[in-house]
Amino acid sequence: GVEPAAAAASPSSPSSRGVQRVPTVLLSGLKSGLPMRYLRALLASTVDGVESVVMPRAKGAPLGFAVIYFSSTALAIAGIRALDGRLHAPSGSRLSARWDP
After folding, report:
1. DSSP string, 26-44
2. Which of 31, 35, 26 is nearest to 83 (CA)?
3. Can the keyword Membrane be found in this entry's annotation (predicted)?
4. Three-class DSSP category at 73
5. DSSP SS3 for 21
6. What is the DSSP letter of 23?
7. How many domains in the chain?
8. Residue 82's closest CA among 70, 90, 92?
């Protein structure tokens, strides 16, 4: 017979919902070296449902972008709409928001 644990882990089972990927948006066009508190303030005044924000600082990471984790897919979609094409004040550059694959 089928092991119960294996059956529970199958993708079609509703219990696997907890393992859903977090809705993640990639925001680029930020001024490199932008303080994190400025970015948090920008997001707080523009979009809802931001769980956390990461600005990669690793060597080799492209400059001027942030990864935003949203609490739900609907809020992430609204966030992309609100942020994409928005003018970014300090540099005057346009922001680009898209799904992070």
Report:
1. EEE-PPTT--HHHHHHHHH
2. 26
3. yes
4. helix
5. coil
6. P
7. 1
8. 70
Confidence at residue 10, expressed as pLDDT on a 0 to 100 scale:
42
Range of the domain at 75: 21-99
State how far the alpha carbon of 45 is from the alpha carbons of 31, 40, 73, 76, 82, in Å: 18, 9, 19, 15, 11
SS percent in the chain: helix, strand, coil, step 5 = 35, 25, 45
Residue 76 lies in a domain: yes
Q: 89 lies in a domain?
A: yes
User: Would you say residue 1 lies in a domain?
Assistant: no
Q: What is the DSSP letter of 20?
A: P
How confident is the model over 24-74, as pLDDT tens digits?
A: 999 998 877 778 888 899 899 999 999 999 988 767 766 788 999 999 999
